[in-house]
Design brief:
- This protein has about 200 residues and is α+β, with helices and mostly antiparallel strands.
- The protein has 2 domains: about 30 residues; about 150 residues, Glutaredoxin, CATH 3.40.30.10.
- About 35% of the residues lie in helices and about 20% in strands.
- It has a 7-stranded mixed beta sheet with strand order 2-1-5-4-3-8-9. A two-stranded antiparallel sheet has the order 6-7.
- Helix 2 packs across helix 5.
- It is globular, with a radius of gyration of 20 Å.
Length: about 200
């Protein structure tokens, strides 16, 4: 009886330990910049429409660093705050901002038309380019960037639950690092400047 309990206890401890290690590794991959040697599988091909109705893909931005943020124009708080921070970071970079493609990809294509996006992004920085597309195109882009989003509520005033991470991608579209909602404009500008 005692040996059976001991075996159950040992198996339980081993299971908990392996789950803890697995969770720790997953957190490590998500939280480490590319120069740590651990590069998460974030980013990839997308095919969307810009504010002028022109078809755009990730390949259009090759040769520039990409600053990529997923959100939506009817967002009450986190999106405008993040875009303001992005815009300020671009201003801090001065002429270096010419080497950056700041992209705002909507997770709400039903309301965020190209015209609506244009008026919205201009409020934060004229360099920020809004991108939209069909629901499937948005889903495909969100999937390669590991972005979560989901409609919450009904009627025209629904909200979109979504992850809020700004990704910095290299000149070939590969992940370099990311910024969470508490990053300052100076944090972002300093990180970008390292890769210019």
């Amino acid at each position: 009886m005692a040996s059976r309990r001991t075996r159950v206890l040992i198996v339980s401890i081993a299971l908990i330990a392996s789950l803890s290690v697995g969770y720790g590794l997953s957190r490590l991959v998500i939280s480490q910049p590319a120069d740590s040697g651990i590069v998460p599988a974030i980013g990839g091909s997308f095919h969307l429409v810009d504010e002028d109705g022109k078809r755009r893909s990730d390949a259009d931005f090759r040769g520039k660093l990409m600053l990529v943020y997923f959100g939506y124009t009817y967002c009450p708080d986190i999106c405008p705050t993040t875009l303001q921070t992005m815009g300020q970071a671009l201003d801090e970079l001065g002429d270096g901002a010419d080497k950056v493609a700041p992209l705002f990809i909507t997770v709400d294509p039903d309301r965020d038309t190209p015209d609506h996006l244009k008026g919205y992004t201009e409020q934060f920085n004229p360099r920020i380019l809004g991108l939209t597309g069909s629901p499937q195109e948005i889903a495909d882009a969100a999937r390669v960037y590991r972005v979560y989003y989901r409609k919450s509520g009904s009627g025209f005033d629904y909200l979109m639950d979504h992850s809020s991470i700004v990704y910095l991608m290299d000149r070939n579209g590969h992940y370099l690092t990311h910024f969470t909602a508490d990053a300052s404009a100076d944090d972002i500008a300093t990180a970008i400047a390292k890769y210019l």
